[in-house]
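Fold this: At3g07040-like protein
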Amino acid sequence: NNFELKIVRSILLLSFNDLPYPLKRCFLYCSLFPVSYRMKRKRLVRMWMAQRFVEPIRGVKAEEVADSYLNELVYRNMLQVILWNPSGRPKAFKMHDVIWEIALSVSKLERFCDVYNDDSDGDDDAETVENYGSRHLCIQKEMTPDSIRATNLHSLLVCSSAKHKMESLPSLKLLRALDLEDSAISKLPDCLVTMFNLKYLNLSKTQVKELPKNFHKLINLETLNTKHSKIEELPPGMWKLQKLRYLITFRRNDGHDSNWNY
């Protein structure tokens, strides 16, 4: 009800409406992450590419086009750079809390993104995701059997340290991005190998110990990130993943893991 905040909101909405269409989708997608979350550049770029948000330009790599989107969003003050690499290139971003609230409200209104967090009412929130057809969902609190009922999801993120059981996920054959980074998940959903449209899988810093034997069925996979997870070896048939662009897999032992053997 604050008059000054209403003015700020109207100005920010004008800035959003002035964005080119590809940038609108990329900007709204950032509202999936929790408020003030540190979003890494490479992570965002690869997720945008998986969702086909990056418009093809002849003679220009998709990564370069996505980087130009980030630069434009920073120039328009829609995103803030919070970390640079040694060469001065932006490495991580965050979204101001007021901008995040506006982005999320627009996302929900347009049935684009939704979040399941402590402000949600459990079953009511799950029903919203199902009935209103949001294509991108982020779980930010402990999952229940009814957390995910929609089967038309294109993105599923888990940004919560609570324990989750994903074995009973519904069939998500339209899913393009599954991001479980830094979650307490230890077992992948049984339906993973049926996600034929999956292009991006991030298991970084999870408790997952192995990939399914039929992992090679994910023939459209472009990014696989298993760094700092419990995975010690990749399943046979990885050579069949002809579209794989990024394979990030390593672990670092600081002397605290007695089971570290490679």
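The chain has two domains: 3-94, 111-248. The domain at 111-248 is CATH 3.80.10.10 (Leucine-rich repeat, LRR (right-handed beta-alpha superhelix)).
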